[in-house]
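I am hoping you can look over what I have pasted underneath with an eye to the fold:
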Amino acid sequence: MKINNKILVLYYLVLLFVMLSWTNTTEAPNIIIRSGFLLAVVIPSLISEKCFLAPVIICFLSISQNGFAHSYMPDTLIYYVIILLLGIIVAKPVKNYFKVPSYLWITFLYVIMINLVTGFAIERISYTFIIAILLLFFTSNQSKKDINLWSFCFVLASLVLSILFIFNRDKFAMDYHGIGLEQTTWMDPNYFGVVIGMGGVIALLDLVDRNDDVENATKPLYIKIVYIVTIVLSLFTLVLNASRGALLATGMALVLTIMSTKGNLYGKIVLTITIIISLVYIYRNSFFDFLMYRLENEDVEGANGRYIIWERKIDSFFNGNFFSIIFGNGYQGGLSLGYTNKIGTHNDFVGFLVEYGIIGLFLFLQMIIKPVFHVIKNKENVTKVLVLMLFLSICCFTIEPITGAYIPNLFFYFYIVLVAYSRKREASI
């Protein structure tokens, strides 16, 4: 049964508003309601327009996992694995679906094997890996439309979360924790900031990158307006959220985008002026105060305690036995390494090293390098992939979005892979 695309979009917008209507921070809807809501998200795409499935799930999950309240979307990732497997069996994958590069299969199998051997458990990173792989069965490797939908899902998630943040700042409160002023939120402000930055960076890339003049010329005006609003609100939210790592990653990605894309000079000037005016407004209204406080009051026991964590983790790692150095300690072992309690590495490079050994670090570096080398070799989407990978790499250096399996970071990485390796043939929507 075929559903008109406009009706399908309207249906998902209504469903999004329904999801946002749940604002309870202490209690989630019961599992029957949440399971029913997940089916309502998945089934229309499966029976009508399969290319909508991955973007819709990513968008809804990104918002639900990074908001200030519980959600109608289930938190348990096994539900998504099951329903996607059933979708592949019953509804079949799309024609010419995107085939995951072999190095990612090797990384996935290695990670799941190490965690099974060291901790007898399938960790969250394995679930996010398999969900991302399964979603690509519903994504064509030859469709510009599919890539545009993936792009839009990250932009929409950033826009919605920015609006939620601005209108619910009391839920993202500031409080003292002995060492100074910090933020207390439903979601860690560092990971929240990364999701906000993702949408802003993609929006700017899609607006100014003129690799395909026809695509940019035919992009609907309302999409351009949504993208511009997302850029402005994401910057506003990033400053208020005061995550230095997310702000650094987003700022560097935005600067590289404006400097290196092939967009016309007039468009770049307009965007630059818009960003400057927005930042001046934020500054003049004292919205920089919390960010300035955090920059001026760096404490080794606070955010900059990362350096101490890295040092202790790495020292303990290299004092381990031969097998743990080569193959790692697994996710749970990595958390405990160097400490009596479990502490994250706050760095994916260190995380892959201590959790999955020298082999794991090599595989992670390969994940970053392979898509970049591929686009440079093929001279297509070079700027976009470089900017997106720069953004993700900076985030991975300051926090642990991949090893910690925070949604939607691994999905964002697969989006980069999709952009790098797809053979686009169709006109955009």
In short: DSSP finds 19 helices and two strands in the chain. Residues 152 and 223 are 9 Å apart (CA to CA).
